[in-house]
Structure formats: structure tokens, C-alpha cells
Amino acid sequence: MSKKHKSPDVRGGMGRGHGMMGMPPQKAKDFKGTLKRLIGYLKPFKYHLLAVLITAILSTVFAILSPKILGKATTKIFEGMMMKMKGVPGAGIDFDYILNILLILIGLYLFSALFTYIQQYIMAGVAQKTVFALREEVNQKLSRMPLKFFDSQSHGDVLSRVINDIDNISSTFQQSLTQLFRSLVTIVGVIVMMLTISPLMTLIVLLTLPLSFFVTVKVAKRSQKYFMGQQKSLGELNGHVDEMYTGHRIVKAFGREKRSIEQFNSINDKLYDAGWKAQFVSGIIMPLMMFIGNIGYVFICVVGGILVTHRTIQVGDIQAFIQYARQFSQPITQTANIANIIQSTIASAERVFEILDEEEQVPEAVRTKEIPSPQGNVAFEQVTFGYKEDNMLIEDMTINVKQGQTVAIVGPTGAGKTTLINLLMRFYEIDGGKIAIDGIDIRDMARGRLRRLFGMVLQDTWLFNGTIKDNIAYGREGASDEEIIQAAKAADADHFIRTLPEGYETVLNEEASNLSQGQKQLLTIARAILADPAILILDEATSSVDTRTEVYIQNAMNELMKGRTSFVIAHRLSTIRNADVILVMNHGSIIEKGSHEMLLENDGFYADLYNSQFASA
Amino acid sequence: MMKLLRFLKPYRVPVVLVLILTFLQTLSNLYLPTLMSDIVDVGIVQGDVPYILKIGAFMLAIAALSVVFSILASFYSAKAALGYSRDLRSSVFNHVENFSLHGFDKIGTSSLITRTTNDITQVQRVTAMMLRMMVMAPMMCIGGIIMAVSKDAKLSLVIVAAIPVLAIAIIIVQKKAIPLFKAMQKKLDKLNLILREGLSGVRVIRSFNRIDHEKERFKESNTELTNTAIKVNKIIAALMPIMMIVLNFSTIAILWFGSIRIDHGHMQVGDLMAFIQYAMQIMFSLMMVSMMFVMIPRASVSASRINEVLELEPDILDPDRVITANEQKGHVAFQNVTFSFQGAEKPAVSDISFSAEPGEVTAVIGGTGSGKSTMINLIPRFYDVDSGSVLVDGTDVRDMAQGDLRAKIGFVPQKAVLFKGTVAENIRFGNETAMDEEVFQAAEIAQAAEFVSNLENGFETVIEEGGANLSGGQKQRLSIARALVRRPEIYVFDDSFSALDFKTDAKLRARLKQEISDSTVIIVAQRVSTVMDADRIIVLEEGKIAGIGMHQELMKTCDVYKEIVSSQLSEEEIA
């Protein structure tokens, strides 16, 4: 189980998200549709986005205008200097003109900065709120999902979608969206400005473009191979670490530390090998782009210089051009990058939407019925059920359980004993027949109401990261401290809780590993006791509580079971001998049904199982 | 973060090379504007086209040189960064392999896994970036200032004045942002935790009808995360404009003061143009660094988590002078052993004394938390006792080499852990040199031979990670076979029959009795039927021995035992 939880981090660990050049982008299946849908989430913010767009245009336009104006100042200085050199009397630099220009520039810069700030500021709200809404929607959706979904989906995968994928979308909204706006405006603006200065030099700059693209694509392709190798080794390494740490006790017991380390080192070496190559190859994209940029730069200087000598352009124009060329190459690489980012964002969005599009559980009945004072009569009437459509596990099953009776469900491991529970609590929908409690079809009840009738102690103890008190109190909202302690006492948990350093206030850590399995069981029993339900479900609850503790629990349970209907799943035959009805299960189906004596007389599967316990001991 | 830099030491040479190469690269990049100024000041002023072409060619050569430096720097930095993380990973793994179980209890297995894998990857990423980008910034700064001063010392004052302004602005913003980034990471983790709990506890949540409560919990956490994220992004939003203003204003200042100097004939127009470009390069590099700071909080959280692991000293070490205990075989003795987990108020086991000889079966039974597993975990020295001593073959386990000690023991854990690999490989885990027949025989005794031969590839069937393709009982039988193939002096079964059905359990015990009659066997069990025939039954209650003896004896003398028995067996079976 713990393994499932780790995978999201693994995926998020390397190469996901933004800015790693040369990484293979993840592709979406339906790019257009998903994009449209994602944009839909931005709709409530359309005015904000409009403001972002306007401020982006304004700030970029101002930023684009300034080099040309700055160039004018340089030209003026140059002219003044040339005049001086030629010895024109009274000649000098026209400082009034330059001051004027500089003042204009100060204005432009200030405005540009201001608008950039406004744009980012607005976007921060938009991006985060959108993502907030998306997360909420997914969580709401999860609460409406049938159990089938949780049982079949790896938790790590779901976690990764809700946390990593949404995080990915968030940073795209935050950074890349505004960047995209700016880049587009910049590219158009810069081309226009360059054309007004010199079409020939514009052509030179534009010629470097296909070169950059070519280089990027080529190198990225190469690096992808190494990245894949790196990813593979990393996966292998993580797997090894996972296994060795989880089996630490065994590794130690059999003195295999050395072997384990050797194996680790060999995978680690492979990872290093693929890793540095990936890093290196993707790392040379930037220098190469810079080189191409520099080639453009040199040509601008040379051609510009020659043009100036022919008086076609001015010195300040060269300077402006150099700045434009720099401004130009940046958004180009950015857009190349953004293309990847958008692809991976859409892929992320698609994964999130996949969850949102999952089939939900059957909606509640329109007019739900209630049981005012539950008795706990449970009836299965000709119930048919299978997890898969073509494989019915339960067919035409009819059982009547009267108030206060105990039903024991028996069978070897993996016989599908939890199936009945899944059906009773309507975690799964039956395919035929009807289950009724006190005569009311459970499908006519609201799920919440139905489940409140049950108190359940499951095989895997689920406790959350909180105090012991809160964990017990989970059984019933608004329980008082006294009631909590009472429940703990009834479950024989009070004693061990009090030996903990913080008693009831002890905080369980993430994996609740500061308690033993048996102690955890006791807590979940206390939780069920506190819930005070009409029907009890004990799902192998006591299998890791040893028999002696079980005696205590049994006593508490017997007290609790008085007047309550109980369904007990257990390996231990001694605990079910007193059951009113025994259901014997094998391979998912119920194969025998009756009381202990009856079943022994039948001399079937149950009798065999029972006799084998003491056969050769 | 800094503490981990010691792992960079072996990579001194490549790191220094990276520094030099990056410096050369920045210098050549900065040299380009200088050449450009020559084009303007000489070529254009004198209308000398051949000169312009000549300088142009020279510039191309410099640009080519720069790219060579840069690629070489990339090469060495990739090697250094990845080598660094390889070493770090390896030393963490090595270190953890030496941990006792105590270390695992303390940090938690899954946390240790994340620390060895993701956290190191995170650190590696930042190290690689630091070696490339962060190194460049100071070089750019220094190089830029050198070039600027060489062009015109007085005008460089503008740059010298602008850098601290920019630096202060960056520092102020980062000071505000970094704690928020850290907080954001924490809140993201919290959200992750709530979601994870919601997934794994879905049955419980639904059965207690607490869906709305969970939704509320999620929303709360989501809101907190969102608010922090908005805050931090709004702060970061100021960074870019501030930097742009400083950058642009210094350009204006350079132009203004530069024109005055030109007017006085102290400098030329080309120099001015070059100057503006130096300033831009310097400031750009600083901006780049400021962006990188965003990465650092995440990495430093990772780094400190890694450090925590490295600083945790293994608490069980081999003694300086190892005693080899070979005179006796299969003797286990506890002498007044008391042991408590760290931080626990009460000892988990106290004052335990007994001894077991070869050919005997010693069974341990008792309630949850009575210390059964804890007690037998002391035999292979998974933990060290507080007082008293555990003797194996007459020697205190603390005086033996751990490897020697454990070679004597075949340990079967409560939870069957198998590894990725074939069935045969898994059994051989107990004894690498075991022949095929030995492997088969072990499987046969462990009642595993039948189901294994029914598997697709028999003993060569590959077991998936965590043994996902086997049932609990099958895994347990393989883990028993793994101990059997070792042919140890001492067998320790820690409640190892729990996942077996009664039939298999009985068969298995019957076979074990025949096969390992000359070894010492210690069994922890829950079922009375498992322990009834033992030569010695130890009844534990709250960490103390409540009774010790054979079944019939204990039935007469030990109330705790009687209670356990009567809960499991019916009257006629007891008699």
C-alpha cells in the first residue's frame, strides 16, 4: 500500500513541470478539446484576463519603443561628435535634445514596469483561484465516486493528478500564460520596429530563426534518448530503494546488506551515466542558441556598420537593432519552450479531466426513505452481484437476518468475504434482487443515512494524522470527552492510551507507525463503539489482535452486540462458533449457509475447514 | 544545503574547470561589444569597410570560441553535478543499510525512501543549475566590471552604483518570498496528506458519513494553500518590474554621463554603446540568479531532510574486538533482559530469563503489546538491550560480529517480505550458494513446492514487486523456505503461520518437526494449537514472563495461559 503513495513524488521528482529544455513533452490525446475545456475554467475571469492582455500589450509596446528612442539619442551624440571632429564652429552635443529623449524614456520605462507589475499581480489571483476551483471540483467529484473507482485506481495515480498535475496547470497559468502574451506582442512589435529601421538587417535577424529551430529540435531529439534512459534507471533505483528499505529487517536478518549495496551501486552508476549525458546534451542547447544569437549580432554590427558608412542608417540604429535582436531571440526560445509547456499542461489537464469524467455512483433516490428507529433486520432477497459483468459471484442469494443475530462469514483468504459488506453498505451496486433493512430497500435510503446504521471495524485500520481523541471521535460528531474515554474503555484501549506520553492527545504520525497494529485495531473498535450503530460489521477486525486481547474485545463486543445485528468476518473459528448464521465462502461465492452444528453435520467445506484446525496438532 | 556541498570535494577539478571555462566564456561574450565599439569608432568614423569586415570576422571567431568554452563547461558541470548526486545517493543508501530497526522506526520507512530518491534528485537538479547559471552571474559581474573599467573607469561608477541597488532589491523581495515559498511547500504537503487519507480511508469516511467533514478539511487546506500562493506570486510580481527599472535607469544614466564625457572628448560613441551592453549583460545575469532563488527553498528542505539521515548515527555497531562463538551450537539464552523503545515510559520487555537448547521448540504466546515480537527481535540484535544480556552460543550478541550472529539464525518475519526476482532467487536469499535440490527441498518442507510448480514458470517465475502476484499464505511459505535453505542453528518464527489456513499450518508444522529436529526453534504464535506441543511455552504479559513451562504444566499453574486456551479450544480439546 505504501508503494502506491510514493509514485506521485517519483513522477514529480524529475523533469516534470517547466523549463527543462530537451525533455520529451507529454502529449495529450485530445489537444483541442482539452484546451477548450481548460480555457472554460478561465471564463469567470475574462475581465481580469482582458486587463492582463491590455497591460501586457502596453508594457511590451513601451518596452519595444524604447530602444529606438535610445538609439536616437546615440545618433545625436554621434552627430555632435562628428561635427566637432570636423571642426564645425560652436558644434557640440545637443544636450537639450538628449535630455528630452531621456525624460521620455524615463516615462516609458516607468509605465512599462508599472504595467508589468499590474499584469503579474492580477494573474496571481486568477491563476491561483482557477486552480483552487479545479482542486475543489476534483475533490467534490471524488466524494461522489463509487467505491469501484477507489478499489481499481492506484491511489498514487489519483494523488499525482490532483496534486502534481494541477500544480503544473497552476504554474502554466501563473508564468507561461503571461509570458505567451508578452512574447507574441514582442515578436510582432519587434519585427515592426526593425522593419522601420532597416528591412535588410531585419532579414538577417529573421534568417537566424530557422537555424535556431533546427538546432533546438536536433539537440532535443538526441537528449530525449538520454532522458528516457535516465528515467528508466531512476525508476529502477527507486524500486530497489523501496524494496530494500521495506525489507530492511530481512536484509539484515540474512546479512545481505553488502549485496544490496552492490546492486544499488550498479544501478546508481547506470543512472549517473545516462544522467550526465542527458544533462550535458540538454545543457548545450543554450550555448548553441547563444552562438546563433551572436552570429546575428556580428552580422548586425558588420552590415550595420557598412550601411552607416553608406549613410543608409544611423549609428543609433545599430544600437537599437542590437537590442531588438536580443529582445527578439528571447521570446523565440520562450515560445519554443512554451509549446512544450503547453503540451504538458494540456496533458496534465486531460488527466485531471479524466477523473472529472469518471462515472459517478448511482444518484440518490429522489424521495429518500428513513428508518425512524432502526431494528437491524437485514434481508438479502435473490441478490445477484459480480465485480465484472461477465463473472457473477453471488447469484440468487437470499438470507434473512433478524434483529440481534450474528452472521459469521467464513472462508479461506481471498474468498471474497468483504463483498457482502460492500453490498450491505452500498459501496457497490447489486446487479439483481434487493437488500432491505427493516423492510426498506437500501437504494431508497440516502447513502449517508444508510451507512449511519452501521458500525464498522475494517481489516486495514484507517486512522488519520491527528490526536487519538480525534480519531476515536471520528465515530460520532460532537462526542464529549467522557464518551470518548468510555468508548476507549469499552474497547480495552484506555489502558494503553494512558501509557502513551501524551495520552489521548498523542498525535498519530502520518503512517500511524507510532502504534502497533493491535493498538490501531483497538482504536478503530473504540471508534465503532462510539458510533453506537444498529448493525455491526467486524471485518477480520481482530485478526492482528491476539486471542487474549480478543477475549477482552469480545466481551466488550458481546455487550455492544446485544440487540444489534452483527456481521463478523474472521479466520478464527472459535469466535464464530456462536453465530446464528454462518456463511461459508470460497472463490467469491457463498457455498454453504447454516449454523455450526448444521454445517458440521453436512460434512462439507466448512466441516473440512473446521476439522483441519486440530487435525495433527 | 551548504552542508551537503562536502560531497562536491572529489569533483574539485571539474568544478574549477567549470569556473574557469565559464569565466572565459563570459569574457569572450563581453569582448564582443568591445569589438563592436571598434567597428563604430574606427570603421564607421573613418568609413573603412575592409576594417569593419575584418573585425566582423574576428568577432565570429570569438563567438565560436565562446561556444566551445560554454559546451566544455556544460560537459564538466554535468559530470560534476551528476557525480555529486551519485556519491550522495550512494552514501545515504550505505548509511541507511547500516541502520538498526531503530533508525527506521525513528524516521519512517517511506520517509527514508523519499529522502534517498526524490530529495536527492531535487538537490541534484539545483546543484546542476547552480554549477551552470549561478556560477555565471558573479563571473558576468566581475568580467563586466573589468571590461567597463578598462573602457572608462569613471563611467563604470554608474554600474558599480546600480549593482548594489539591484542586489538590495532582490534580497528584499527574496527575504519576503522565501519563507512564503517554504510555507507553500508545507501547505502543499498538508493538502497531499489530506487527500491521501481521503483515498485510503474512503470506506471509513463513507461508513461514518463524514464526507462533508472531509470536504471541509480539504477546502480549508486548499484555501490556505491558495492564499499563500497568491501572496507569494504577488510579491514575485514586483521583482521583475523593479529589476527592469534599475536596469533601464542605469542605461539612461550611462547615456547621460557618457554623452557628457564624449562631449569633453574623454570617450567615443562606440565605447558608449559597448558600455550599455555591458551593463545589460551584468544586470541580466543578476536577474537570472534571482529567478533561481525560487528553486532553493525546495532544495534546501530536501537537503536538510537528507542531512537528518546522514547525521543519524547507526546505534548498533560491531564491537572493536569480535568474539566468534563456535564452541556451542544453537544455544540461546536470555539473562534478565530488559528493553525499552526510545522515549517509551515503560520497558517493552523486562526481566526475561530463559534458555533454549538445540532440538527444542520454544514457543512464545501472549497478548497484543505483551512484547513477544520485541523479545525475539533481540536475538538477531535488531535492537540492543537496556540491561541483562542475550547470549547466543554462550556469547553476548553484542560481542559478536552482526554478520556472524545472523548467519546462525533463520528468521521468518511476521509480514512476509519478498523481493523482485524469481521464486528461486527469493529462496536463495537465505543462502546464496544453495543448490537447486536444496532450494526445492526447502520449498517442499515449507509446503510451497506444490503451488510453485503450478506457477507458470515454476521456480523461475518472477515475483513482482512486493510479491503482488502471490497470496499472503504463499508469500509466508516462501519466506519460511528462505529461512530453511539457510540451515541455521536457530530458527525464529515471528507469528509466521498466521496467513496460512489451518490445514497447511498443521502440515507445515508436522514437516518442520521432522526436518529441523536438531536446530533450536523459537516460535511466536497466536494459536494455541501451534504452541501446544512445544518443549517450553513462554507466556508473556505486559512484557513480563507470566509463566513458563509445558502445556499441561501451565494449564495448572498459569491463569493467563488458561484464559488464552479457553478462548480458543473447546472443553474436550483442552482435556
Automatic annotation (TrEMBL), chain A:
<dbReference type="GO" id="GO:0015421">
    <property type="term" value="F:ABC-type oligopeptide transporter activity"/>
</dbReference>
<feature type="transmembrane region" description="Helical">
    <location>
        <begin position="180"/>
        <end position="197"/>
    </location>
</feature>
<dbReference type="InterPro" id="IPR039421">
    <property type="entry name" value="Type_1_exporter"/>
</dbReference>
<keyword id="KW-0813">Transport</keyword>
<dbReference type="InterPro" id="IPR003439">
    <property type="entry name" value="ABC_transporter-like_ATP-bd"/>
</dbReference>
<keyword id="KW-1003">Cell membrane</keyword>
<dbReference type="InterPro" id="IPR011527">
    <property type="entry name" value="ABC1_TM_dom"/>
</dbReference>
<keyword id="KW-0067">ATP-binding</keyword>
<feature type="domain" description="ABC transmembrane type-1">
    <location>
        <begin position="50"/>
        <end position="344"/>
    </location>
</feature>
<keyword id="KW-0547">Nucleotide-binding</keyword>
<feature type="domain" description="ABC transporter">
    <location>
        <begin position="378"/>
        <end position="612"/>
    </location>
</feature>
<dbReference type="GO" id="GO:0005886">
    <property type="term" value="C:plasma membrane"/>
</dbReference>
<dbReference type="InterPro" id="IPR036640">
    <property type="entry name" value="ABC1_TM_sf"/>
</dbReference>
<feature type="region of interest" description="Disordered">
    <location>
        <begin position="1"/>
        <end position="23"/>
    </location>
</feature>
<keyword id="KW-0472">Membrane</keyword>
<dbReference type="InterPro" id="IPR003593">
    <property type="entry name" value="AAA+_ATPase"/>
</dbReference>
<dbReference type="GO" id="GO:0005524">
    <property type="term" value="F:ATP binding"/>
</dbReference>
<feature type="transmembrane region" description="Helical">
    <location>
        <begin position="95"/>
        <end position="118"/>
    </location>
</feature>
<dbReference type="Pfam" id="PF00005">
    <property type="entry name" value="ABC_tran"/>
</dbReference>
<keyword id="KW-0812">Transmembrane</keyword>
<dbReference type="Pfam" id="PF00664">
    <property type="entry name" value="ABC_membrane"/>
</dbReference>
<dbReference type="InterPro" id="IPR017871">
    <property type="entry name" value="ABC_transporter-like_CS"/>
</dbReference>
Automatic annotation (TrEMBL), chain B:
<dbReference type="InterPro" id="IPR011527">
    <property type="entry name" value="ABC1_TM_dom"/>
</dbReference>
<keyword id="KW-0547">Nucleotide-binding</keyword>
<feature type="transmembrane region" description="Helical">
    <location>
        <begin position="278"/>
        <end position="296"/>
    </location>
</feature>
<keyword id="KW-1003">Cell membrane</keyword>
<keyword id="KW-1133">Transmembrane helix</keyword>
<dbReference type="InterPro" id="IPR039421">
    <property type="entry name" value="Type_1_exporter"/>
</dbReference>
<feature type="domain" description="ABC transporter">
    <location>
        <begin position="332"/>
        <end position="567"/>
    </location>
</feature>
<dbReference type="InterPro" id="IPR036640">
    <property type="entry name" value="ABC1_TM_sf"/>
</dbReference>
<feature type="domain" description="ABC transmembrane type-1">
    <location>
        <begin position="16"/>
        <end position="298"/>
    </location>
</feature>
<dbReference type="InterPro" id="IPR017871">
    <property type="entry name" value="ABC_transporter-like_CS"/>
</dbReference>
<dbReference type="InterPro" id="IPR003439">
    <property type="entry name" value="ABC_transporter-like_ATP-bd"/>
</dbReference>
<dbReference type="Pfam" id="PF00664">
    <property type="entry name" value="ABC_membrane"/>
</dbReference>
<dbReference type="GO" id="GO:0005886">
    <property type="term" value="C:plasma membrane"/>
</dbReference>
<dbReference type="InterPro" id="IPR027417">
    <property type="entry name" value="P-loop_NTPase"/>
</dbReference>
<protein>
    <submittedName>
        <fullName>ATP-binding cassette subfamily B protein</fullName>
    </submittedName>
</protein>
<feature type="transmembrane region" description="Helical">
    <location>
        <begin position="155"/>
        <end position="173"/>
    </location>
</feature>
<dbReference type="GO" id="GO:0015421">
    <property type="term" value="F:ABC-type oligopeptide transporter activity"/>
</dbReference>
<feature type="transmembrane region" description="Helical">
    <location>
        <begin position="130"/>
        <end position="149"/>
    </location>
</feature>
<keyword id="KW-0813">Transport</keyword>
<keyword id="KW-0067">ATP-binding</keyword>
<feature type="transmembrane region" description="Helical">
    <location>
        <begin position="52"/>
        <end position="76"/>
    </location>
</feature>
<dbReference type="Pfam" id="PF00005">
    <property type="entry name" value="ABC_tran"/>
</dbReference>
